Amino acid sequence: MPQQLTLAMQSDAGFEAHRKRTRRDVFLAEMDKVVPWAELCAVIEPFYPKPRADGGGRPAVGLERMLRIHFLQPWYALSDPAVEEALYDSAAMRRFVGMDLGRESAPDETTVCKFRHLLERHGLADPLFATVGKHLKRHGFKLSQGTIVDATIIAAAPSTKNKVKARDPERHQTKKGNPGFFGMKAHIGVDAESGLVHTVTGTAANVADVTEVPNLLHGKERHVCGDAGYIGAEKRAAKRGRKFWIAAKRSVVKAIDDTKLREIIEQLEHAKASIRAAVEPPFRVIKRQFGYVKVRYKGLVKNTAQVKTLLALGNLWMARKHLLASMA
């Protein structure tokens, strides 16, 4: 039996009839369709609080609703208090979550925080990422024989104005170009054909990119591509018939005296770069589309879990047109 419209829902519906559909509306509507909610909830359900047998206590908020709120946070860079306020402020977010202010209030910030801690405590970021990968595979996205590896620095607050008067010991300083960075690194392995991320790891910012290569391969690659930061990767990862296409350092190419030879090498490097370009869209999505440019939490485990969640959702975002067409 359809739910009766409350005064609040009728008011929203009347307002929506006379306003332009925003980018937020479009984004949330598309993500609502492409995210495999039932499968993701099935991963979390064994660990989610069950109603008391005697019917006492405050009833738990619906699992899918909490998962939707959990996804809103990294998409819009919202803290626990901020996402609670956003649900009261944004009709688009309330529709996405399935919340009716005429019948209920938004989950408070403590409830939101406890849900995130539940996911962290049981290490559910990895199975959630794997579930999204299986969902994409069922819709035609299969791993090819090529992997592209890359890493990006995600900044953290370098200030020591906190209770312990110190920086986070699990993140470190590194240098890239002239400015220095304090934070963590997100390392990814991307399928060369689809451009989707199949493996994610997180380390402190001062860890060399090449050291993570063995952890970024799915094991069935025939080809591995990377920039000059991965020179020597073939010595760290078991070859197993793999061919490594690693960029040469610019200084080495420029130092070649033979003009014709240098031109040939430059053309080869250009071809390598055109293949490696497929590794950039996932970083663009989480940093520009989702606005994730700075870590929010303390500790490497928490922030790595958030990066994995964002990249899983980024895969769905990049594949949304194909998914929407196949679902239709």
What is the H-and-E element order?
A: HHHHHHHHEEEEEHEHHHHH
Q: What level of helicity do the residues show?
A: 40-55%
Q: Given this structure, which CATH class of the largest domain is correct? A: Alpha Beta
Oligomeric category? single chain
Radius of gyration: 23 Å
Low-confidence stretches: none
Using the alpha-carbon principal axes, give the shape: elongated
Quantity of strands, as a count: 6
* Gross CATH architecture of the largest domain: 2-Layer Sandwich
Mean pLDDT: 85
Instruction: Assign the structural class, choosing from mainly alpha, mainly beta, alpha/beta, alpha+beta, or little secondary structure.
Output: alpha/beta
Percent range for β-strand residues: 5-15%
SSE topology:
Elements: H1 7-16, H2 23-34, H3 37-44, H4 63-75, H5 80-89, H6 91-97, H7 109-121, H8 125-138, E1 146-155, E2 172-175, E3 180-191, E4 197-204, E5 223-226, H9 233-236, E6 243-246, H10 250-254, H11 259-276, H12 280-289, H13 300-318, H14 320-327
Parallel strand pairs: 1-5, 5-6
Antiparallel strand pairs: 1-3, 2-3, 3-4
Task: Kindly describe this structure.
Helix content is 46%, strand content 13%. It starts with 6 loop residues before the first helix and ends with a helix. The radius of gyration is 23 Å and the shape is elongated. The chain has helices at 7-16, 23-34, 37-44, 63-75, 80-89, 91-97, 109-121, 125-138, 233-236, 250-254, 259-276, 280-289, 300-318, 320-327; strands spanning 146-155, 172-175, 180-191, 197-204, 223-226, 243-246. The chain folds into 2 domains: 7-121, no CATH class; 143-297, Nucleotidyltransferase, domain 5 (2-Layer Sandwich). The protein is built from 14 helices and 6 strands. Strands 1, 2, 3, 4, 5 and 6 form a 6-stranded mixed beta sheet that branches. With 328 residues, it is of the alpha/beta class. Helix 5 packs across helix 7.
